[in-house]
Specification:
Layout lengths: L3 E7 L4 E7 L5 E5 L5 H11 L2 E6 L5 H4 L2 H11 L7 E2 L6 H4 L2 H8 L18 E4 L2 E7 L8 E5 L4 E3 L4 E2 L2 E2 L9 H12 L7 E3 L6 E2 H7 L7
Parallel strand pairs: 3-4, 4-5, 9-12
Antiparallel strand pairs: 1-2, 2-3, 6-7, 7-8, 8-9, 10-11, 12-13
Length: 220
């Protein structure tokens, strides 16, 4: 099954919220709804997709700040359906519980704390429209960062682990540069050069291109 991916840049951070769905069944999921929930809902309505879950790669406000509001709105728009919030790993709980306070410090409105219905761990699996995605724990940017990998279709959602030409920031008190590089070397690069990915900010890429030209990956 080939899934459709729609990227919706949200918040002042221009974070890539992803709407991933099956064009035939019109079932799907939203990944990392950081904010601008009306914009996300408009995209869902335009595509006519039934959202089955909200997935989070990590606990930063620009990735998770709109998750609670989106879940409430979808529960209203899809009567009889509960839309669970799934992920990230439990190590990011402290970030999810402080989103509103962080947002206020940035002068941002309409961002809320998040209490996921389920945290994820290495080796878990989630499904989007019946397509299995492996869950890999890739800490360093945040302690509980996870990524989602569709091995069959050679596609991944990497959040803020790896970007086109760059990697995630680690200059937070809880960040760990060496841990992030290790996660990329041990879990992301072995996926294969043909794996295409979307990331939390900026354009998509594929692992082969980053292995060859990303300055942060040379020597890994």
């Amino acid at each position: 099954m080939t899934l459709s991916v729609t990227l919706i840049p949200v918040t002042a951070f221009q974070q890539n919220c992803a709407l991933i769905s099956d064009p035939e069944s019109r079932r799907g999921a939203v990944i990392d709804p950081g904010g601008d929930v009306p914009r996300i809902l408009a995209a869902i309505e335009k595509l006519g997709v039934t959202i089955e879950q909200i997935l989070l790669t990590h606990g930063h406000l620009d990735h998770a700040g709109g998750a609670s509001a989106l879940a409430r709105a979808l529960a209203t728009a899809q009567p009889g359906r509960t839309v669970p919030i799934v992920g990230p790993a439990a190590q990011d709980r402290f970030l999810l519980e402080n989103i509103a306070r962080q947002a206020a410090a940035f002068g941002l409105a309409d961002m809320e704390d998040v209490a996921p219905d389920r945290f994820l761990t290495e080796g878990d699996e989630v499904e989007i429209a019946g397509v299995p995605f492996a869950v890999l724990h890739c800490p360093g940017h945040t302690p509980g960062h996870v990524v989602f990998v569709d091995r069959t279709n050679r596609f991944a959602v990497l959040g803020d682990v790896l970007f086109q030409g760059s990697i995630g920031r680690t200059d937070f008190p809880y960040g760990d540069h060496q841990q992030l590089l290790a996660a990329i070397a041990e879990k992301i690069l072995p996926l294969g050069d043909d794996v295409h990915f979307i990331c939390g900010h900026g354009p998509a890429s594929h692992i082969g291109a980053e292995r060859r030209s990303n300055p942060f990956l040379q020597g890994l």
